[in-house]
Amino acid sequence: MTTIKKVATALLLSVTGAATAQEQLRSNAHIGFVYPLSTNGVKALEYSNRFSIHALAGVSRAEEAFCAAGVANVVKDSVHGFIAAGTANIIGGNADGCQAAGFINLTGGHTRGTQLGGFINLSGSVNGAQLGGFANVAMHEVKGAQIAGFINTADTATGQVAGFINVARRSKAQVAGFVNVADDVDGTQIAGFINVARKVKGAQIAGFINIADSSDCPIGIINIIGNGEQALGLTVNEIGTTMLTLRSGGRKLYGIIGIGGNYVDGYRAFGLEAGLGMHIPVAPHFRFNTEVSVTSLSDLWMNTDIRTDLRFMPAVRLGNVEIFAGPTFSYTGTNDIQGVGRVGYTLWDYQSWGYTHNFAIGGVVGIQYHFNSKRILNSLTTQKNISAE
């Protein structure tokens, strides 16, 4: 018996007491105020009803079409059709149709249809959708969607959308405002901050960091991928901006984050860099690295240069060391009049509203050291940490 089934049973018994009668009674209409003040009286738990309506709370064995209560509905076995309550629907067995509650829907068995909960929905398994203001919980499989304001959790889910966190053992799609956690993802993870998984067949897209044992397409600033690459290096461009940069990702896509500055010809500026790149393999020790990056150079007072680079860099890797160099196509926007002089060969520039804009051709050269990706992953987390089990 699942945890949810146990909770549902406990709630049913606390409200109705243990039923001793075994007979199954039927009624076309069940109308009442609160158990046992209804047309079915003290035997309400033995009745299956086609239509039920209660001022406060109703109790029944099963509902076959329509059921509504001002506060709560308690159904021992199954529900077919529509059931609604101002606070809670508690169903011991399966539910087929739509459940709507101001606070909680709890189904001990299988839900086929839709759960609409103002706060939380709980079910053994779902074939349809769970829509919860705060949370959705499914102990087993969800064939459909879980959409919650804060958290979704399931053993296996087709799609999860949450304002904060999604948790599943297996999932096809997870979209969260902050974090997604899964064992295996056969599709996409999209998170505002972090994605964590064991194996991802598809894209991991995070505002900051992706963590996985293997991932086809990690897109984030930092990517800790067991079968991928992590390298720390130095780059220098045509105007002398030097950056200490971490490049991390999968075998093809990777993220870029760096810190540095420029102190050439009396120019003193602090620099930050972020971007995305792609490896294009050519030979065992030779490849092209294509990157798009944004670099901010500021004197931390009044002047700031924002430079966007498109880079094409042939690279040679010998063991853990990689050397690369190539041309850059850059756009620089600055509020410092001297900023236009800190670019490569200018193709076009213009001024507007106190800002200078410049398109130029330049270059970059760098060297980086590759670390053992699997070792880094194992040092940060264990298999238990990245598993949704």
- The helix content, as a percent range, equals under 10%
Mean pLDDT across every amino acid position? 90
- Uncertain segments are 15-21, 383-389
Strand content: over 45%
Sheet with the most strands, sense and barrel status? 20 strands, mixed
| Strands, total number | 29
- Overall, the morphology is elongated
Instruction: State Rg.
Output: 30 Å
Number of helices: 3
What class would the helix/strand composition place it in?
mainly beta
Terminal Cα span: 18 Å
Number of domains: 2
List keywords for this structure.
389 residues; Porin; 20-stranded mixed β-sheet; 3 helices; elongated; disordered C terminus
What does this structure look like?
With 389 residues, the protein is mainly β. The chain is built from 3 helices and 29 strands. Residues 15-21 and 383-389 have low confidence and may be disordered. A hairpin with a 5-residue loop joins strand 25 (286-298) and strand 26 (304-318). It is elongated. The chain folds into 2 domains: 3-163, no CATH class; 229-373, Porin (Beta Barrel).
